[in-house]
């Protein structure tokens, strides 16, 4: 039997990678939804050549998405749609709120109607600027509702509430992945996040911009590890009704990442320091014991390996030999 899978946000970084991976599975078709607010058609060039992939340009926050005929007989929904970079979600705060609240409700309603399983991609941002380290799924977070990141952080948290309600009240099979910093060669080089900024700046000879003193930490997960975790979550019944961290538990200071990128690119760029953005977390590192126990999952790609792949791809994008 053919399995039909819906991916929202399919033209984005994670969505396009996920679609490509799922389409390698025999007897699988993918219907991708995206309003192209931050996603790019170029991310789907290879997918659009396939008979097993259908793209529908649509805003999943619009309740009329529930009337799309192609979505009547589906088996799984990966709800990834949302700006994820502070640069983009702060530029469109109300749309970010809509896609994570109304868009999530719409996809849960679609799952309820069709009997499909749903995986919602939440975020490590639900932990805010954490006072507990590393962060486990039981930690309730330290999020500021009165600041520039709140439109994303709080909307994702509300999306989780909708997932809880549809699971507990209507028995919809729901899984919530809290994703920590993910990167790869496919990340837009104008994305504004740490890895894309550092690699682009190093390759073009621009100053490498470190915000704050660089002692704040992050944990970086290569995209193939992330996608493997999401697919395992969808497959495993034991993940039903669970929130699970998906990220790399190895922690790096931002200043060390800047110097590693400079070293790997053989760049002459200077490292410069700039004011830390408001509400920027000081530490970010997942406790992945739950993922290990329930999914048998942990990352395999080291930061250096992932950076080398990313640098090689960005060189091609930027036409640097």
UniProtKB/TrEMBL annotation:
InterPro entries assigned to the protein according to its UniProt record, in alphabetical order: NAD(P)-bd_dom (IPR016040), NAD(P)-bd_dom_sf (IPR036291), UXS-like (IPR044516)
Membrane topology: Single-pass type II membrane protein
SUPFAM superfamilies documented for this protein: NAD(P)-binding Rossmann-fold domains
One term of GO molecular function: GDP-mannose 4,6-dehydratase activity
Pathway note: Nucleotide-sugar biosynthesis; UDP-alpha-D-xylose biosynthesis; UDP-alpha-D-xylose from UDP-alpha-D-glucuronate: step 1/1
Domain of life, source organism: Bacteria
Keywords associated with the record: Decarboxylase, Golgi apparatus, Lyase, Membrane, NAD, Signal-anchor, Transmembrane, Transmembrane helix
Keyword Ribosomal protein included in the entry's annotation: no
Family matches, as Pfam families: GDP_Man_Dehyd
Coiled-coil annotated spans: none
Cofactor: NAD(+)
Assigned EC number: 4.1.1.35
Subcellular location: Golgi apparatus, Golgi stack membrane
Main location: Golgi
Residue ranges constituting the NAD(P)-binding domain according to the UniProt record: 7-308
Family to which this protein belongs: Belongs to the NAD(P)-dependent epimerase/dehydratase family. UDP-glucuronic acid decarboxylase subfamily.
Protein's UniProt name: UDP-glucuronate decarboxylase
Organism of origin: Ectobacillus antri
């Amino acid at each position: 039997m053919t399995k039909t899978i819906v991916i929202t946000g399919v033209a984005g970084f994670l969505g396009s990678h996920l679609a490509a991976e799922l389409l390698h599975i025999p007897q699988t078709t993918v219907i991708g939804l995206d309003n192209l607010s931050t996603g790019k058609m170029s991310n789907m060039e290879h997918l659009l050549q396939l008979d097993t992939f259908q793209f529908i340009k649509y805003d999943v926050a619009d309740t009329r998405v529930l009337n799309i005929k192609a979505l009547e007989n589906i088996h799984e929904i990966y709800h990834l749609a949302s700006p994820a970079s502070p640069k983009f979600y702060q530029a469109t705060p109300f749309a970010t709120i809509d896609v994570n609240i109304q868009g999530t409700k719409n996809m849960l309603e679609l799952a309820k109607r069709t009997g499909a399983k749903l995986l919602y991609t939440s975020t490590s941002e639900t932990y805010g600027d954490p006072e507990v380290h590393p962060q486990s799924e039981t930690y309730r977070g330290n999020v500021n509702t009165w600041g520039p990141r709140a439109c994303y952080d709080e909307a994702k948290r509300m999306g989780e509430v909708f997932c809880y309600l549809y699971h507990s009240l209507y028995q919809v099979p729901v899984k919530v992945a809290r994703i920590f910093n993910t990167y790869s060669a496919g990340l837009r080089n104008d994305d504004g996040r740490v890895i894309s900024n550092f690699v682009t700046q190093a390759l073009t000879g621009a100053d490498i911009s470190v915000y704050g003193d660089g002692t704040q930490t992050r944990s970086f997960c290569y995209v193939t590890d992330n996608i493997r975790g999401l697919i395992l979550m969808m497959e495993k019944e034991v993940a039903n009704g669970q929130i699970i961290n998906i990220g790399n538990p190895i922690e790096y200071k931002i200043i060390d990442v800047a110097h590693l990128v400079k070293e790997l690119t053989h760049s002459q760029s200077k490292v410069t320091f700039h004011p830390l953005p408001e509400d920027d977390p000081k530490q970010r590192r997942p406790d992945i014991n739950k993922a290990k126990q329930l999914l048998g999952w942990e990352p395999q790609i080291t930061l250096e390996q992932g950076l080398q792949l990313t640098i090689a791809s960005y060189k091609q994008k930027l036409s640097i030999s």
